[in-house]
């Protein structure tokens, strides 16, 4: 489908460069900031593995200046070096403060991709910073952070204008131009409070992209229920203005307050919606068949059910009951289904064991453990290896505080050294300097 759309787009535009829309998933950064929920470091790693398999361009995988993220971040970068995460960038989120950038590189030496964030609206400058920063100092802090990031070896970075949707447009352009001149590769337009409409975000992003002429990221929230529409409209504006667009998503739309743009919903909108799917190029690496697996895993890991009416992956997404709809769907699925359930990796029967079950947990013994792994067709070379993996599986159950999935069990058996690093967290010694660091 993507290839067909690409050919149509190329035919209509001749040989001119075709701008594309890419996905930057922020589940492991913005999603985990959601109140009352969290992911373990193993679960965050699994999300990265699914996102990579899905062909997502970049995962914002955490906070590299935060102590408890260090081992997880370094371990995931090792997975990337090993080729386990093979096509997706791993990027860190850092405040646009020089000291934070330096700490991030100190804690996570192999970090190559980051987004640097600072608030730009007068609302935030006046009532959040409360005299510590003004407009000029915001730009100065951001520029210093960008130059520092480049100096310490960051290959590519985006600059986030937090609360961009409520930022004076003239100042937003000034801020973005300063970021570009300092070395930024992208500008992230943040609709931090979900304030934009599809109409306002199109106008503002188009003006911004035309003025700055570098790729634009679209980061939207769902406070007014328009997050997917706003994200697509903002990306359309960037492409129409002649630059690439990057949409920020989270799996199942998990995010602060009312949530972020749902990963699957955004992809479906970009592939199938009227006047978008046939004209705007979604990154061709996207493999939508992973949608069902990643949505189910995130639901289990977060402990939040997938809404019954969730696009593509909800229980009722392909359910028909009324006579007219059922008759029409049976005659031709296109009567009442815009896309195929097979496209999302759905349709295969799922077996639920109703008899004896042997599971592994923090108190498992070697015989039950071996039985579980035999069912996964995983064998160990000797007793020592089996004991090592059993101990890691015990720790993983304590780490997750819930039974492990089959994919988690496979991961631990295949990459025990990485798993051990992920599970290891040592609280730092608290210093006056450290307290100050986290007070901003």
If you compute it from the alpha carbons, what radius of gyration comes out, rounded to the nearest whole angstrom? 23 Å
Q: Mind describing the biggest β-sheet?
A: 8 strands, parallel, barrel
The strand line-up of the biggest sheet is 1-2-3-4-5-6-7-8
The CATH fourth-level homologous superfamily of the largest domain: Aldolase class I
**Low-pLDDT runs:** 1-15, 434-440
| Whole-number mean pLDDT | 92
User: How many domain modules?
Assistant: 2
The top level CATH class name of the largest domain: Alpha Beta
| E-strand count | 9
Percentage of helical residues?
40-55%
SSE series: HEHEHEHEHHEHEHEHEHEHHHHHHH
Which terms summarize this structure?
440 residues; alpha/beta; TIM Barrel; 8-stranded parallel barrel; 45% helix; 11% strand; disordered N terminus; disordered C terminus
Give a quick precis of the structure.
By secondary structure, the protein is an alpha/beta fold.
Topology of this structure?
Elements: H1 2-13, E1 20-25, H2 41-54, E2 58-62, H3 70-82, E3 89-95, H4 98-107, E4 113-119, H5 122-127, H6 135-151, E5 156-162, H7 169-182, E6 186-191, H8 198-212, E7 216-220, H9 227-240, E8 245-249, H10 263-272, E9 281-282, H11 291-302, H12 323-331, H13 366-375, H14 383-400, H15 406-414, H16 416-423, H17 432-437
Parallel strand pairs: 1-2, 1-8, 1-9, 2-3, 3-4, 4-5, 5-6, 6-7, 7-8
Helix pairs in contact: 2-11, 3-16, 4-6, 6-7, 7-8, 8-9, 9-10, 14-16
């Amino acid at each position: 489908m993507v290839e067909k759309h690409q050919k149509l787009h190329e035919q209509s535009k001749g040989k001119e460069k075709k701008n594309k829309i890419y996905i930057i998933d922020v589940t492991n950064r913005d999603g985990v900031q959601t109140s009352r929920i969290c992911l373990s470091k193993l679960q965050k790693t699994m999300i990265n593995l699914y996102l990579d398999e899905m062909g997502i361009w970049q995962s914002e995988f955490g906070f590299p200046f935060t102590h408890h993220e260090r081992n997880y971040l370094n371990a995931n970068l090792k997975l990337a070096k090993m080729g386990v995460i093979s096509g997706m960038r791993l990027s860190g989120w850092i405040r646009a403060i020089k000291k934070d950038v330096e700490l991030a590189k100190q804690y996570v030496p192999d970090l190559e991709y980051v987004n640097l964030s600072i608030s730009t609206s007068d609302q935030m400058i006046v009532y959040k910073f409360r005299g510590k920063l003004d407009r000029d100092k915001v730009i100065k802090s951001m520029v210093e952070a960008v130059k520092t990031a480049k100096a310490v070896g960051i290959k590519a970075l985006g600059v986030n204008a937090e609360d961009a949707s409520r930022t004076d447009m003239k100042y937003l352009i000034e801020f973005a131009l300063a970021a570009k001149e300092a070395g930024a590769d992208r500008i992230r337009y943040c609709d931090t409070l979900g304030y934009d409409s599809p109409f306002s975000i199109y106008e503002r992003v188009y003006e911004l992209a035309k003025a700055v002429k570098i790729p634009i990221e679209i980061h939207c929230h769902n406070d007014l229920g328009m997050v997917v529409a706003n994200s697509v409209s903002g990306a359309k504006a960037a492409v129409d203005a002649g630059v690439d667009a990057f949409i920020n998503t989270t799996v199942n739309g998990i995010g602060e307050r009312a949530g972020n743009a749902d990963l699957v919903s955004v992809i479906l909108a970009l592939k199938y919606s009227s006047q978008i799917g046939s004209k705007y190029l979604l990154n061709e690496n996207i493999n939508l068949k992973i949608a069902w697996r990643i949505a189910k895993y995130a639901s289990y890991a977060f402990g939040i059910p997938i809404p019954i009416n969730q696009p593509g992956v909800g229980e009722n997404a392909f359910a028909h009951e009324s006579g007219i709809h059922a008759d029409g769907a049976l005659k031709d699925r296109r009567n009442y289904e815009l896309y195929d359930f097979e496209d999302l990796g759905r349709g295969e029967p799922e077996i639920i064991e109703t008899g004896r079950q042997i599971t592994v947990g923090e108190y498992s013994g070697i015989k039950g453990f071996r039985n579980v792994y035999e069912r996964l067709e995983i064998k160990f070379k000797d007793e020592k290896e089996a004991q090592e993996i059993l101990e890691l599986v015990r720790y993983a159950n304590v780490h997750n505080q819930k039974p492990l999935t089959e994919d988690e069990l496979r991961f631990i058996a295949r990459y025990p050294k990485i798993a051990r690093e992920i599970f290891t967290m040592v609280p730092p010694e608290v210093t006056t300097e450290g307290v100050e660091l986290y007070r901003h």
